[in-house]
Structure formats: C-alpha cells, structure tokens
Give the backbone structure.
Amino acid sequence: MNGYLFAGYTVIWTILLFYLLYLNKKQRETGEKLKALSETLRQEHLEE
Amino acid sequence: MNNLKLIWWLALKDLKIEYRSRQAFLTTLFFAVLILIIFNFAFDPGSNATREASPGILWVALLFPGIIQLNRSFQSEVEEGTLQGIVLSPVDRGVFFLGKFMANWLFLVAIDLLILAAFIVFFNFALSGGLLWVLFLMILVGIGFTAVGTVFAAMVSNIRIREVLLPILLFPIIVPIILAAVNGTREVLIHNDFSTLYRWMQLLIAFDVIFLAAGFLVFDYVVGE
Amino acid sequence: MWLANSSRALSSARISVRLVAWLLVPLYVLGVLALYTAFIHAPTERVMGDVQRILYFHVGAAWTAFLAFFFVFLGGILYLIKRNVFWDYLAAASAEVGVVFTTIVLVTGPIWARPVWNTWWPWGDPRVTTTLVLWLIYVAYLILRSSLGEGEKRARFSAVFGIIGFIDVPIVWLSIRWWRTIHPVLITKTEVKMEPEMFQALIVSVVTFTVFFVALMSLRLAMHLHNSAAEEMAQAVRERSE
C-alpha cells in the first residue's frame, strides 16, 4: 500500500518538475530575444 | 434570394463539383469498404466476439473517411483563396456554414447508405427492421459529426498538418456521439433491445441541436476577423 | 503587429508577476498545511489503508483541472468580445497549467485505483473517462496553437475550439454515464467513510491546489506577455532599419 502511495507522490513531483523545466526553457527563449534586441539597439546607438 | 434557398444553392454548388468528377465519392467509399474488409482479416470473422465488435467496426469505417472528406470539402476554397472572399461577400457567414454543412452531410449520408449495405454483407446480418433504426442513427450522427467537423475543417484548411490535426481536434469532441452510435447500433442490431435506443437518440438530437447552433454562431470567427 | 502595444502587455505582466509574488508565502504555508493534514491530521482509512491519502491531492488536482478549463473557455469568450490579446494568453496559460494538472489526475488515479479496485482503468466510470477526454481536448487545443503562428488567427481559432470543447465536456460526462448503465461496472461508487479530519484535509488540499493554479497560471501568463512584447519590439526594430 505504501509503495503505491510513494509512487503517487513521486509522480506528482516528477510531472511538476518537467513542467518547471519547460517553463525555464521558455523563459530562456524570451531572454535570448531580449538580449538580441538590446544588442541590435546598442549597435544602432553606436552607429549614430 | 432568401436564406433557405441560398443554403441549398451553396450545398448544390459543392455537390455538383463532386458529382462532376465523382472521384472523391468513389475513393472515399472505397476507403470505407477497405476498412471493413481489413477488420474482417484482423478479427476472426465467425466468432461471437467479432459480432459484438462489429458495430464499432462499422462506425470506424464511417468516421475516418468522413474526416478525409471534411478536409477535402475546403480544398477548393484553399486553392482558390476564396475563403477570404466570403468575408467580403454579402452572404451571412452562418448561411455559408449551413451550405457547407448541408453538402458535407448529404455526401456523408450517401456514403453511409452504401457502407451499411457492405456491412450487412460482410458481417452476415439478416435484413431486419433494426437496420432502419441504424440508418436513422447514421443520419443523426452525421449531423453532429458534420456540424462540428465543418467548423474545424474550415479552421485547419490553411494549416500544413491538417490531415492529422482535424482528427485530433474532432475525435475528442464527438466522443458522445460515437458512444451513442456504437451502443445504439449494438443494442438494436445484435441484442434486439430497443429500451436504451431512446436515450441514445435523445443524446444525439441534443448534441446535434447544440452544435449545429454553435457552429452557426461561431463560424463568423472562423472565416472572418 | 497585431498586439496593440508592448507597454500595455508589460504592465499587465507586471500585475501578474506581482500577484504571483504575493501568493508565494500563502502558497508555501498552505502547502505545508496540506501535507500535514493529509499525512498526519487525517487518520488512515479503514478499508483502503494509506493509499487513500493520494486522493487528497488527486481530488485537488482534478478540481483545478476542470477550473482551468473554465478559464480557457472564459478567456476565449472574452478575447472574442474584447479582442484584447491578454485574454487569449490567459486562456493559453490556463490550458497549459490545466493539462499539467489533468496529467497528474490521470496518473495518480490509476495508481490509487489498482490496489483499491484491482483495475488500472475503469472505463465505465464517468469521472475517469471524462477526465481523459478533457485531457485530449486540452492537448488538441495546445497542438492547434502550436501549429499556428502568433497572431490574431491563432487567438480566434483557439477561442472557438476552447468554447466548443467546454460545451462538450458535460455532454461527454452524460454519455459515459449512460454507457455505464448498459455495461455495469463491477465497481460501484466507493463510499469513503469521511471522518471530519479527512474532510478537512481534502478542503485544505483543494484550496492549496487552487492557489497553486492561480499562481502558476499568472506566471505563465506573464511569460506569454513578456515574450509577446519582446517579439513585437524586435519586429519594430527590424521594420525601422528597413
């Protein structure tokens, strides 16, 4: 019985972990977009 | 031209295009028959278990070709880019939806009739009054299937993976009518039990009314801005 | 770009993030309380044993899964009426979090069911199979979104599908219930003898999951808004240099 209970909770944690990893990846993508944007703006600023 | 006549006209326009080549109809029909045949190879033809499963096989043979036909029904619009034209035309988008729905539904019912005949032959069913009820089920299921299917088919018409996307969108939604169809058919044809049929019919009619109305109201957003 | 302006998105995002920040401490407290009530406060169930404790979180997740779907529906309708991308992202964020919680429900369910009912999946049970169909509709929603590029078309189509899906779920539930009466399942509704402590544990868990949902959904919403603003600004810069 307790084996099943442990499995149940492990599964919940695992699913949540995977979702957090996914969110992290998405956030990194947005961060990269912003970095590229700030690079472009810096270049433009330097060229002026 | 009043709206009812317009719906008819739109439906006939699509069906005439179909009729000219008949290729779509014949290939869809062939595909459905093929599914029936393959299942006879997949399962032991004589056994009782297969007989119990046969209503499911019948409906699978109708659903998959139905999906293909739904996708195809918007192909001419995609190729000629006329879907955007609907936005500009004075035709009410709901009316356009009903026209498409009518064409698709009539096409489906025609296929249903022929597949039912093939089904009777391949699965050795006696000609009974129950078959008329099955036909009635097919008509009702066809309405719900086509109503939701037409909305989704219009949505995916411009998406590259529409062949697999349409079933992904449609099948979960039509679970209730699949249950009604298969169980209704099974009870009537195999168990000769008409007691539950009434309930399944109620479900089908409710589903049809709700989603025909929903499709009509929502089609504006699918085609237009 | 169809997004009205980035600054509006950014201020909405800021509100969302602030909401999450405010919720973090209560969420932590509730979480600990939920664990305590589930494992210590509530007694062991007589018939099922300790496995029954999974249900506290299973039910919490299940309620939230359906709540999230309501938000998908609501977001879709509000988007179609107001045409503000905020509502579309709210729907999308709810769908994502919703599918996560539904997955939790669908996996913990069989884990509980196997020792108790001696079956992994009771098809005839309307709650079980309806949740499965809910999961399918969620996944279909997300696949639809991913196959469309960012834009008002995606928002429009998502809204339509979300609305149709939401109308459908009660019908699915009903149809499966009628299916069950024809093929009676060996498992009748299991009566869990609810001690008051158990009920308390359940309530705490449900509240915890609801707060967790709001926080997670708000966070994802903020992420969508940020990403969208970044994209729009990048686009503006690209156009300016042309």
Summary: Chains B and A do not touch (no CB pair under 8 Å). Chain B is about 85% helix and 0% strand. Residues 3-223 of chain B form one domain. Residues 93-122 of chain B form the longest helix (30 residues).
